[in-house]
Amino acid sequence: MLEAVINSAFTTVVAGPDNTTTPNGVLYLNGAVSSITPTFVHQGSTQFWSVTFTPTSTGIYSLYAFGSIQFRIPCVAKTTQQMLTDLSDEALGSWTWDKASGALTLLRQNGTTLATFTALDDLVQASRERIS
Prior knowledge:
By secondary structure, the protein is mainly beta. It folds into two domains: about 5-75, Immunoglobulins (Immunoglobulin-like, Sandwich); about 80-130, no CATH class. It has one helix spanning about 80-90; strands at about 5, 10-15, 25-30, 30-35, 40, 50-55, 60-65, 70-75, 95-100, 105, 115-120, 125-130. The protein is elongated, with a radius of gyration of 23 Å.
């Protein structure tokens, strides 16, 4: 499924009439007019236009241009691939625990930091609280 990611430019191609000057496209977020103005670039002498915008919040973005809705796309905080990578790294990555400071660091499979925690441990129970 195609999705936009928050604060990352999203570009797609839409079709319009052959003789149209720059379209007056309106971008909607969850059904309300968005403050984001999309950029249109005509693709030579064709009826195709590339449309680019950078979503600033999650939700469903819709573009109205050429007299109809051209597309609807969900905007997410992370792509599905990024989430699967995080899950894989959490399951298969390593961790280190500095018992003197209580800092527990969860490492990705490539050795970079995925998250840090404050860890508490006593004779009865152990716990961790995410810091970042």
